[in-house]
């Protein structure tokens, strides 16, 4: 008997009752405004089960291979797997065995990460988990950066969910220093989206000097923590600990309030390539509310449930409201991004401008860190599409509707503590796995030497390609690329083998984007962002991608 994905995942993914607090059957004093209303009804589990139930005497529907693969027929070199969150609702033994991934013995392994949602989704698609020490895998999912040797040893059919050196984006100290460097080089007004920050203890004197001119409060964060751990607010520099590395940022004292509550955004951003740079943002995100109403007088700086919006902190508060309805997007202390945008639009706010500013901020933050990652990619990644990365961008909006970047999370949490989490994260994760293109290749089948040599040869062409798009070549690239861009597939190709391959891969990837929106390159990306690129790093042919696919 099949169940809905919410029923299937309820026991395995949702935290135990002892770990959660819910006031879904009573009004909440801290959320008295109608906008933060409590749930009015729960899902009728019996009705939902009927929708997805297959009568026991009827055969399991036949699985069509075309539904689960893209790019060619099964066995073709360019064929990749397609993932659907709906597979969670029909995960019978018979249906799993019929899926192409099961027939090809496709495998995955998870290291230093706990994600029951990921494992369940992969299992439902017929993908088998292998031992941590196995090298016969198609997907490696790790909660931390893999060792350089692991990346160097990747085969063409293998994917890993991190780029080397991406801590330049996800460590709070490195993120700020990279953006600060761009502020000095390109102007503060162009990168004015992160609060002024100091790295302790080396910049303690600078903090004291700034505090003398501009009083606090200041927010203190460990450089490499997540989920609100170790964060607190101080009024003066002498309250900052100097025994361990932390960052101290200017506290945003005028946050956007909804029903009197502070909130922040968690947006899911994927980079599928740094060279060329390809950035996608998921169409839906989460809005997290602080449980206690905001007090601008700063009399309760000690109260994390007023100043921090992390679910991991607020879920323990007695007034925290959690919805049991996956379709309720504006109930309790966790909303969808769409629900917040509808709320702001109803108040006459310009939500289109807000989202444009958020996308601009995401692109610039990644551009600020790209050069270091590109250098590491050249050094360690053996094949074009071996790596991808999912980032969790945490963003605060102030009362003027200006977005501020708080941090970028490595391996954002995929834990599901409510039906809304399951609905959003399962769809996002399925679209992510489809987007990155896991090859439909049996990992036990030996990749022939000619294929390895072909890829190595293509990588060796990078020197020529990067020279074409270096500082010397960019001056004339605009007109020449526009002239040649329309000749793709029409007679002799104007592109090198490397360019042609990357165009093909990016085009196929774009068609599999699902709920992801490609924000870079976009229609005006070259004109708008080329001034921020280090032209000696060889970010490959942005205009070709722009003119071909936008």
TrEMBL record:
Record's compositionally biased regions (Low complexity) = 15-35
**Looking at the Swiss-Prot or TrEMBL record, what is one Pfam family this protein matches?**
TTL
Q: Which reaction does it catalyse?
A: L-glutamyl-[protein] + L-glutamate + ATP = gamma-L-glutamyl-L-glutamyl-[protein] + ADP + phosphate + H(+)
Q: Does the keyword Nucleotide-binding apply?
A: yes
Q: Where is the composition biased (Basic and acidic residues)?
A: 37-51
Any Gene Ontology CC annotation:
ciliary basal body
**Which Gene Ontology molecular function entries are recorded, alphabetically?**
ATP binding; tubulin binding; tubulin-glutamic acid ligase activity
Q: Name one GO biological process term.
A: microtubule cytoskeleton organization
PROSITE patterns per record: PROKAR_LIPOPROTEIN, TTL
Q: Where is this region: Disordered?
A: 1-63, 473-495
Q: Which domain of life is it from?
A: Eukaryota
Q: Which UniProt keywords apply?
A: ATP-binding, Ligase, Nucleotide-binding
Family to which this protein belongs: Belongs to the tubulin--tyrosine ligase family.
What's the protein here called?
Answer: Tubulin--tyrosine ligase-like protein 5
